[in-house]
Amino acid sequence: MQPTSRPATIRADDAPDAVVIGAGHNGLVAANLLADHGWDVVVCEATEHLGGAVRSAEVTSPGYLSDLFSAFYPLSAASPVLRAMELDRYGLHWTHSPSVLAHVFPDDRCAVLSRDLDQTAASVAEFAPGDGAAWRQLVAEWEEIREPLIDALFTPLPALGPATRMLARLGTAGALRMARLALLPVRRLGEERFGGAGAPMLLAGNALHADLPPEGAGSAIYGWLLAMLGQSYGFPVPVGGAGMLTESMAARLSAGGGTIRLASAVDQVEVVDGTAVGVRLATGERIRARRAVLADVTAPALFGKLVGERHLPARFVRDLDNFQWDNPTIKIDWALRSKIGWTAPGARGAGTVHLGVDLDGLTRYAADLATRQVPREPFLLFGQMTTSDPSRSPDGTESAWAYTHLPSGVEFSDELIAEHVARIEACIERHAPGFTELVIGRYVQSPRQLEDANPSLVHGAVNGGTAQLHQQLVFRPVPGLGGATTPIDRLFLSGSSAHPGGGVHGGPGSNAARAALARDGVLGGGRRKAGQLLMGRIYRGGDRHSVTSRP
Asked: Is residue 494 classed as helix, strand or coil in its secondary structure?
């Protein structure tokens, strides 16, 4: 898609209803939902590429398609936001690997998660008698509340309707147990429910998709949620590459009359008397917005760079200084001349493979990250993309990738990155002898290169900020926000720094669109007024129009 041409400044009478900053998937969700309500929407994307962190390209070898950032999409499959968009009408089609996920232990034992409950139960039962039945019980508990829980995840706070339905199904005692699960470390959940190592590793490995250590509060519910989504929905991928997801969103937006402008970096949100009235591009062009500005960028970028401290309450700025990024990421893509010869049979048909450590190794890996040490034994997330979607590479070959996290606050020299790539490949080689001989192309993205490719992946952080409890729900991205509304009237945060956070599900984009519509009186303003009241109480005393002083 090529950027459209526009006059140097759009006059007020020609101004769109809304400007959306960023053409990542959340920005495209927000733009689509506004267009569905008849709004004229312009999306301004800083880079020359559509899709943000949902993009694919041939970077390893001709004929081998790689997903450059995100790859598997259980949250997309479950998301009511994305399902309601009917993206299959615009070219999106999903496909699955034979099994969802395999965790290969250092001793080559393997636990397999399958969409077939019998197969998952049989796999975990190999580690301890009774664990298959325990897994079935865990799934039954999930199924009881699946529908209201998923609705709650993607409904703006406070999600009273879904919460009420969930409470009706659980009862008081069940609700208390669910609240306990929400606070439980994933290691403890595994100890309480299972006798063997297989099922706890499926849970703990999924918790480590975010930056939640096995002993961290809240890691149990994240690992449980992702494992249960895998059990119910799988870890599907778009046929033809991750980019097909955002391409279908762009096609839908175009059909609805929206405009996407690539290579159109916004360098300022224009604020007049505490209200967002438009944006200024890096070229100097100004675009007025009659109703709203929505920003699919990180919270620090929006408030610190595009808005500026002089427009914000002093306490808000100080709270934003405490915003915590998730750990940096290193990602490697490979073009492989044939399928991978895993010595653990369960790994051969899995789209996602976890390997490198057992549960104690996960704890050591998380401790290394917390103490800013480069892990000597990294936990790897490995993707077999052609196993999941045969269109990704020639017959009999494999387009594959792996990523792992690195500690924050470390300078990643070229030598350190090369050393870690060798460590990652040596780990794979131990479980798939001859792996390195299969490589005909390799593409490495260090934390710096990830950020260069997508400015929202700050320091290589892929979650839009930590997923730990202190920065979730009403604490995301700062205490009292917990959603799309900001201290600036008619400005809405639609990126993954906002609730419900990282992952490809469209929740932040949907919430921002709903907040903008509510502000304009389209959906009713009760939730908006409640959010503004809470923010006002938390940040009263701050003069949004004065320059912030710091201690």
From this structure: coil
Dump the DSSP string for 382-442.
EEEHHHH-GGGSSTT-EEEEEEEE--TT----HHHHHHHHHHHHHHHHHHSTTHHHHEEEE
> In 292-347, which ranges are continuous DSSP H helix?
299-300, 314-321
pLDDT in tens, 1-56: 444 434 344 445 589 999 999 999 999 999 999 999 999 999 999 999 999 999 99
DSSP track, 339-369: ----SSGGGTTEEEEEES--HHHHHHHHHHH
Mean of the per-residue pLDDT values of the chain = 93
Can you tell me which residue has the tokens 């998709």? 209
| Type of residue found at 187 | R
Cα 287 to Cα 36, 78, 303, 493, distances in angstroms: 21, 36, 19, 18
CB 55 within 8 A of CB 69: yes
Strand partners, 276: 271
Whether residue 549 is predicted with pLDDT greater than 50 in this model: the reply is no
CA distances from 253 to 27, 39, 85, 258, 349 (A): 11, 11, 10, 5, 36
Q: Is the pLDDT of residue 241 over 70?
A: yes
State how far the Cα of 390 lies from the Cα of 61, in Å rounded to an integer.
16
Supply the pTM of this predicted model.
Answer: 0.92
Question: By C-alpha distance, which of 523, 511, 18, 544 is closest to 278?
Answer: 18
| Spatial CA neighbour of 328 closest among 168, 458, 145, 181 | 458
The CATH class given to the 12-48+262-323+463-539 domain equals alpha beta
Q: What's the token pair of residue 420?
A: 């870690």
Q: pLDDT class for 543, splitting at 50, 70, 90?
A: very low
Residues 191-215: what's their mean pLDDT? Answer: 97
| Residues near 229 by beta carbon (within 8 Å), at least 6 away in sequence | 74, 75, 77, 78
Report the residue count for the chain.
551
- Calpha distance 473→158 (Å, rounded): 9
Average pLDDT of the residues in 320-333: 97
Q: Are strands 18-21 and 41-44 parallel, antiparallel or unpaired?
A: parallel
CATH number of 96-133+196-213+223-236+325-453: 3.90.660
Structure confidence by residue, pLDDT tens digits, 425-444: 999 999 999 999 999 999 99
**264: amino acid identity, one letter:** S
CATH 3.90.660 boundaries in the chain: 96-133+196-213+223-236+325-453
d(Cα 504, Cα 512) in Å, to the nearest integer?
Answer: 15
**Sign of the torsion formed by the C-alpha atoms of 39, 40, 45 and 46:** negative
Cα-based angle 506, 494, 268 (whole degrees, multiple of 5): 145
Name the one residue in this structure whose structure tokens are 């669109």: 513
The boundaries of every CATH 3.50.50.60 domain in the chain are 12-48+262-323+463-539
Phi, psi of 362 (to 5 degrees): -60, -40
Quote the CA–CA distance of 270 and 389 in Å, as a whole number: 44
Please give the structure tokens belonging to residue 104: 């290969």
